[in-house]
Amino acid sequence: AQSVSQHNHHVILSEAASLELGCNYSYGGTVNLFWYVQYPGQHLQLLLKYFSGDPLVKGIKGFEAEFIKSKFSFNLRKPSVQWSDTAEYFCAVNAQAGYSTLTFGKGTMLLVSP
Amino acid sequence: DVKVTQSSRYLVKRTGEKVFLECVQDMDHENMFWYRQDPGLGLRLIYFSYDVKMKEKGDIPEGYSVSREKKERFSLILESASTNQTSMYLCASSLVTYAEAFFGQGTRLTVV
């Protein structure tokens, strides 16, 4: 079974600071990787995904993530955060096999102060 | 755009009541899911379905059941609601199980 670990439960940054949220997964086979975001009062939405190919993937709103297979990591980055990035961020993994389902990390709450 | 619609945003039920949470998706997706979201615990899978009338247990199925009579609709049933089932419930759908899932707005259930 797969599992996901997010390094930080709460992160507080000032506007224009750089962001990196850590995510590690455990699974022995091939995986698909996702970052989801949940803005206050809104539904969970996809930020970016990795299935195969270039390990550096770009998502919406200037976010990117890098898949490092040797480290089982898929860290989320943004060079300069904005107040509107305040949200909860979830890393998720899905094995590329059969009826595998998404397994989520516990989430990181990001607060960006203006 | 995929739309996943949950019938209620907020529900308050009494302990012991039978509770139905309804979810409808409009993109002809094969797979549907029910998750529970609790602070500090992330999302945990309750049940999923990969076809009509098919269901599979997730990580925390105890106290819940599901029904999928039509492809577009997936219902979560709390047979006898308890206070520890107070939570945010999220429905999702996906074209295939290993693809990204699309989520509804969530139903915040309070059991008193």
In terms of quaternary structure, the protein is heterodimer
Order of helices and strands of chain A: EEEEEEEEEEEE
Total helical elements of chain A = 0
Question: Care to count the β-strands of chain A?
Answer: 12
Report the average pLDDT across residues of chain A: 93
User: Which residue ranges of chain B are poorly predicted, with pLDDT under 50 across at least 5 consecutive positions?
Assistant: none
The amount of beta strand of chain B, in percent, is: over 45%
Give Rg of chain A in angstroms: 14 Å
Mean pLDDT of chain B: 94
What percent of residues of chain A adopt helix (DSSP H or I)? Answer: under 10%
Rg of chain B, Å, rounded? 13 Å
Shape summary of chain B = globular
The profile of the biggest β sheet of chain B is: 7 strands, mixed
The SSE order of chain B reads: EEEEEEEEEEE
Largest interface: A-B, 25 and 24 residues
Structural class of chain B: mainly beta
Q: How many alpha or pi helices of chain B?
A: 0
Structural class of chain A: mainly beta
Number of strands of chain B: 11
- N-to-C terminal Cα separation of chain B, in Å? 37 Å
Distance between the termini of chain A: 41 Å
Written overview of the protein:
- The complex is a heterodimer of chains A (114) and B (112).
- Chain A has strands at 3-6, 10-14, 19-21, 23-26, 31-38, 45-50, 56-58, 64-68, 73-78, 87-95, 103-104, 108-113.
- In chain A, strands 2, 5, 6, 10, 11 and 12 form a six-stranded mixed sheet that branches.
- Chain A is built from no helices and twelve strands.
- Chain B has no helices and eleven strands.
- With 112 residues, chain B is mainly beta.
- The model of chain B has no long low-confidence stretch (mean pLDDT 94).
- At the A-B interface, strand 5, strand 6, strand 10 and strand 11 of A face strand 5 and strand 10 of B.
